[in-house]
């Protein structure tokens, strides 16, 4: 689903966040991306979602080379990718419904279709009863689930999450991870950047470890408990 072929990313100022990185994220899997802070995890996700462009090398998403994507095509390619941030980036002056509807409004869907899809997404994350609420009174875990509903409402084949459990306690983190597993079980490819080693080691999914912008190791967690 995602292939990096000798990808480097140098930020303005000269810092090399990725250095000749090659890796593969298989379709249909839930894969963890880990490594110390500054290893390049966020940069990798930003390249996949076309928020940043690589300095050199090729990135293929679903067989499409991102270097050949023109500026005008970017919104269409982005629709294939749902992104979840640690701080969920919700609009606090809009209801839960309106937050989740945003990608559909941008994509130009009609009213009825928007209502149907938003409620389907809220149902999947267990928040249907809060559709008229504003994000503020909701708990951190609920706010994160609104962010997840917004990311899946377009039904993208690929979900990216950047430290999605970074602000949550272990119990809520587990719930959020189960949600990602549910989407994965219905065929969505999921890539989760996290440095929560505890969480990763309890689950049996492929792991990619970055170190200073390079792939340090790829494999599965040892001793993964059921
Ligand atoms: P991680 O997500 O693994 O913590 P990042 O991809 O966020 O790593 O960052 C990798 C390195 O690139 C860090 O040293 C960071 O300071 C640097 N970096 C990230 N974004 C920028 C930017 N926009 N401009 C300059 N340097 C950046
Ligand atoms: P994270 O902990 O998720 O890696 P950071 O706190 O390092 O995030 O960075 C927050 C934001 O600032 C990110 O969007 C990142 O790209 C940007 N950033 C990080 N380092 C730098 C830098 N040295 N110069 C400019 N922007 C940066």
From TrEMBL:
Gene3D superfamilies xref list: P-loop containing nucleotide triphosphate hydrolases (3.40.50.300)
Origin: domain of life: Bacteria
Keyword Transport: no
UniProt cross-references to Pfam families, sorted A to Z: ABC_tran
Gene Ontology terms describing biological process: cell division
InterPro entries: AAA+_ATPase (IPR003593), ABC_transporter-like_ATP-bd (IPR003439), ABC_transporter-like_CS (IPR017871), ABC_transpr_LolD-like (IPR015854), Cell_div_FtsE (IPR005286), P-loop_NTPase (IPR027417)
Compartment list: Cell inner membrane; Cell membrane
GO molecular function, one term: ATP binding
Keywords attached to this entry: ATP-binding, Cell cycle, Cell division, Cell membrane, Membrane, Nucleotide-binding
UniProt domain ABC transporter: residue ranges: 2-225
This protein's GO CC annotations: plasma membrane
Membrane topology (UniProt): Peripheral membrane protein
Stated role: Part of the ABC transporter FtsEX involved in cellular division. Important for assembly or stability of the septal ring.
PANTHER family: CELL DIVISION ATP-BINDING PROTEIN FTSE, IMPORT ATP-BINDING PROTEIN
Family per similarity comment: Belongs to the ABC transporter superfamily.
Protein name listed in UniProt: Cell division ATP-binding protein FtsE
Taxonomic classification: Bacteria, Pseudomonadati, Pseudomonadota, Gammaproteobacteria, Thiohalobacterales
């Amino acid at each position: 689903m995602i292939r990096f072929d000798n990808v480097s990313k140098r930020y303005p100022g000269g810092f090399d966040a990725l250095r000749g990185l090659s890796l593969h994220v298989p379709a249909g899997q839930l894969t963890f991306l880990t490594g110390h802070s500054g290893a390049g995890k966020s940069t990798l996700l930003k390249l996949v979602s076309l928020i940043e462009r690589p300095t050199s090398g090729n990135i293929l998403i679903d067989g499409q080379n991102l270097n050949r994507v023109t500026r005008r095509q970017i919104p269409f390619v982005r629709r294939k990718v749902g992104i979840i941030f640690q701080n969920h980036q919700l609009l606090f002056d809009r209801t839960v419904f309106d937050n989740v509807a945003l990608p559909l409004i941008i994509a130009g869907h009609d009213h009825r279709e928007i209502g149907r899809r938003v409620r389907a997404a809220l149902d999947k994350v267990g928040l249907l009863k809060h559709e008229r609420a504003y994000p503020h009174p909701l708990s951190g875990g609920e706010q994160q689930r609104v962010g997840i509903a917004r990311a899946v409402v377009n039904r993208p084949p690929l979900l990216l999450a950047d430290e999605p459990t970074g602000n949550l306690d272990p119990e809520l983190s587990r719930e959020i991870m189960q949600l990602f597993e549910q989407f994965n079980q219905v065929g969505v490819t999921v890539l989760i950047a996290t440095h929560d080693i505890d969480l990763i080691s309890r689950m049996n999914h492929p792991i990619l470890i970055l170190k200073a912008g390079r792939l340090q190791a790829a494999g599965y967690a040892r001793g993964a408990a059921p």
